[in-house]
Design the sequence.
């Protein structure tokens, strides 16, 4: 069987799975199915994030993925999407000189360090904030996450990829350390379950990735998910929708314009099992304390809406894009760690390239 004829099953229709499916179709894969546990894609982390595309990354493993991912969003292929995917109002990372790459001067041509007074000119609400300087990146911005996710899905479908919703994984058929089929429960009471024959299985299940891995008998990679909260204010007349997003590197809070007001996050992190996470009232107090201390102009803002989602990490916080070392045909595509939107196109491309090239020659693994 040629590589493009391999039966490929992707578990998860969020950004990782959808982008990988799109790239597989682009590269000529003919037999790809995506299984999604929910009734529609994007109900978890892929649809609950802040949508901020940030080119500069401290981690040398994520940095090239982020840069490539933003380049894709800024200049998508012809016909990829019929709406603009990003509002490039830029970003201000406060106190960036604490970051080792900047200390070494390794900034590239996209970034510029601004004095405090110049940053305040861009976002006047920073007038009393606690920072010394800011990293200005004009190509950063806010992504239309719904349009972006569905552009991958619709493009993958146009390339022949099948998407199946309400397809929770029940079991795997495994023989000689190789998965031969993925099994889902009956779609309706009394009906038959789905049996999806597989030559390659891609685990892009986000917070559920370790559950899927354990069910299949893959490596235990100690993947953990962590809850993070977001808050929206009512409309605020002083907010300019063209402001860049602001992220305080040292004190860990961020905000950006949203619907006439602000979207704010305290960059909280609390371990959680895979689930639909409930908000923790205490985190609103954490946000209030941070704003009072580090950006008093924002202290006391009203909150109109709040929610939280899960971010997924390995212990070393590196992206997990590789074959499993126990199961011969099981591929991990997860733990992008809160950068899944920014890195969707690049992580999906890397995964698809590795999978198709190594399907031709397993000795490369």
Sequence:
């Amino acid at each position: 069987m040629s590589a493009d004829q391999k039966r490929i099953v992707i578990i998860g229709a969020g950004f990782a799975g959808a982008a990988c499916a799109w790239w597989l179709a682009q590269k000529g894969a003919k037999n790809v199915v995506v299984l999604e546990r929910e009734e529609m894609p994007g109900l978890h982390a892929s649809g609950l994030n802040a949508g901020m595309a940030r080119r500069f990354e401290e981690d040398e493993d994520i940095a090239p993925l982020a840069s490539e991912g933003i380049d894709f969003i800024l200049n998508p292929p012809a016909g990829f999407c019929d709406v603009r995917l990003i509002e490039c109002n830029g970003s201000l990372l406060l106190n960036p000189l604490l970051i080792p790459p900047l200390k070494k001067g390794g900034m590239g041509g996209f970034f510029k360090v601004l004095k405090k007074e110049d940053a305040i000119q861009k976002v006047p609400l920073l007038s009393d904030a606690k920072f010394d300087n800011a990293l200005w990146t004009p190509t950063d911005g806010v992504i239309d996450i719904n349009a972006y996710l569905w552009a991958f899905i619709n493009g993958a479908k146009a390339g022949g990829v099948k998407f199946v919703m309400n397809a929770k994984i029940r079991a795997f058929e495994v023989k000689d350390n190789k998965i031969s089929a993925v099994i889902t429960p009956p779609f309706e009471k009394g009906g038959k379950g789905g049996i999806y024959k597989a030559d390659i299985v891609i685990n892009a299940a986000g917070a559920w990735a370790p559950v899927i891995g354990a069910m299949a008998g893959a490596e235990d990679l100690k993947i953990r998910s962590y809850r993070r909260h977001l808050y929206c204010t009512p409309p605020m007349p002083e907010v300019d929708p063209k402001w860049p997003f602001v992220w305080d590197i040292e004190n860990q809070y961020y905000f950006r314009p949203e619907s006439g007001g602000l979207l704010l996050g305290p960059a909280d992190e609390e371990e959680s099992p895979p689930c639909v996470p409930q908000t923790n009232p205490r985190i609103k107090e954490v946000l209030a304390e941070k704003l009072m201390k580090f950006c008093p102009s924002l202290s006391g803002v009203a909150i109109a809406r709040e929610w939280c989602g899960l971010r997924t990490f390995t212990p070393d916080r590196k992206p997990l894009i590789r074959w499993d070392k126990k199961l011969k045909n099981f591929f991990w595509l997860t733990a992008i760690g809160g950068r899944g939107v920014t890195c969707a196109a690049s992580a999906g491309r890397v995964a698809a390239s590795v999978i198709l090239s190594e399907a031709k020659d397993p000795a490369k693994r």
The chain has eight helices and 21 strands.
